[in-house]
Write a structure and sequence with these properties.
- By secondary structure, the protein is an alpha/beta fold.
- The protein is 37% helix and 16% strand.
- Strand 3, helix 2 and strand 4 form a beta-alpha-beta unit.
- The chain starts with 6 loop residues before the first strand and ends with a strand.
Length: 449
């Protein structure tokens, strides 16, 4: 028998009988659905499928087809991760009708004006609402501003289900902590923040997540606290990296190397190790804008957070101008220069190109240099063309006036100066964005952030 909430009257108030959702899932009397199977949703769906019967839902039929063939469209998981898992992949919304516990893990990007784009979240919530039944649970993992779950998602669930929040269904928020490309800190090894719409839901949601998170869970006192915690994690990194990026601009004008300064400063026991870089991706380059918008709505001007975003968003342009200056110093007109850019994904060792500052850097270089060849062993050429408007080169050329190592993929980290000289002119500029070749370059003109 599928469990449901039962309303009872106690002293004139309505209370709820406990829905033992965990035991229903554990006994496979109820199914768990994960809505959105990207770099967050798929790993958590497969982890849940070790213990529960899972419906993996995504609106992209092509991606679903790949997962049915035990292929990860994001390139993060190998086929072995799909084996011996009780999971059914579908792009049909009716598949959600079988579920009683829903996990929503769809993207929450920003638009061209840096405003939160909640279209995918609203769409996914509507799909869940149409399948919602009395006694069901809905847990959101998508990154949002504090209050979004209650202000945006709950009304959609009530409207399209005809059910009443905290009477007929319960809601929770558990922010994702997936780190793409990280094979060490996998989903089960990272403490999971969980929250619920009341005490009962918190306990039930925590118990479900404890099944898959060996590192344990942290029970937040409210959904707003859990939402804010996720935003703060990435805003803190964004502001600190922005400081490093601004320092790199100052030290460049002074004529000293930023990494050498940070190495020296790092000898103090309480110095925080942050480094300059191109801040893109779905988290650090996006989440602060959600907090900025919420802060403005409640009447606060977030000066520091906004300044950090401005610094980091401006780095592709500043990096392109630094390379142009270095080329001119080498006696090369940037408009006549032949440049190789290595890497276009948003970070090393991942295939994802969305919101990639390396992609923006390539666009900046193409606007100021004569010829720019872009290579990346992991990026999909069709996706790059659609997203940034240029074609990836299948292989590196030769006689480059400048080589820019924009993304430090493992394949590039193993290169030495001899490898670089083989594809460039002897006195070419080598722009080592992340400083991984510092101290190893003697012939080329070396440049880093």
């Amino acid at each position: 028998m599928i469990p449901t909430f039962t309303n009872t009257k106690t002293s004139g108030t309505t209370t709820l009988q406990t829905l033992d959702i965990y035991n229903a899932l554990a006994k496979k009397e109820a199914k768990l659905a994960v809505v959105g199977l990207g770099y967050v949703g798929l790993p958590i769906a497969l982890e849940f499928a070790r213990h529960f019967s899972v419906v993996g839902f995504d609106i992209n039929a092509q991606r679903v087809g790949m997962m049915q063939r035990q292929e990860d469209p994001s390139g993060e998981l190998e086929a072995g991760h799909f084996t011996d898992k009780d999971i059914h992949f579908s792009f049909q919304p009716t598949a959600l009708d079988e579920a009683r516990f829903f996990v929503v893990a769809v993207p929450t990007p920003i638009d061209q004006f840096n405003q939160p784009n909640l279209n995918a979240l609203r769409g996914a919530t509507t799909s869940v609402a149409k399948a919602l039944k009395k006694g069901d649970y809905v847990v959101f993992e998508s990154t949002v501003y504090p209050g979004c779950t209650e202000e945006v998602c709950v009304p959609i669930l009530e409207k399209h289900s005809g059910l009443k929040f905290n009477v007929d269904f319960k809601v929770g928020y558990s922010p994702e902590r997936i780190n793409p490309g990280d094979k060490k800190n996998t989903i089960d090894k990272i403490v999971k923040i969980v929250s619920g719409s009341d005490e009962e839901s918190l306990k039930n949601i925590a118990q479900v997540y404890r099944t898959i998170i060996t590192a344990g869970v942290h029970e937040a006192p409210s959904m707003k606290v859990a939402e804010a915690a996720k935003i703060v994690e990435n805003t803190q990194r964004d502001v600190n990296i922005a400081l490093m990026n601004e320092l790199s601009q100052i030290f460049d004008k002074i004529g000293i190397n930023t990494y050498e300064v940070l190495e020296a400063a790092g000898t103090k026991w309480n110095f925080l190790n942050f480094y300059p870089g191109l801040v893109g991706g779905h988290c650090i380059g996006v989440d602060p804008y959600y907090l900025i918008q919420k802060a403005i709505r409640v009447g606060h001007n977030p000066i520091l957070i906004s300044a950090g975003r401005s610094v980091n968003d401006g780095m592709p342009n500043r990096a392109a101008r630094r390379l142009a200056a270095a080329l001119r110093q080498n006696g090369v007109d940037p408009r006549q220069a032949k440049v190789l850019m290595m890497g276009v994904t948003f970070k090393e060792n991942v295939t994802d190109i969305r919101n990639s500052k390396a992609g923006e850097l390539a666009q900046e270089l193409m606007a100021s240099c004569g010829q720019v060849d872009v290579v990346d062993p992991l990026a999909d050429a069709r996706e790059v063309k659609a997203e940034y408007g240029f074609q990836l080169c299948e292989q590196m050329g030769s006689q480059y006036d400048a080589v820019v190592m924009a993304v430090s993929h493992e394949e590039y980290q193993s290169m030495n100066e001899a490898d670089l000289l083989a594809i460039s002119k002897e006195k070419a500029v080598f722009f080592d964005i992340k400083g991984i070749q510092r101290g190893k370059i003697n012939t080329l003109s070396y440049l880093s952030l």
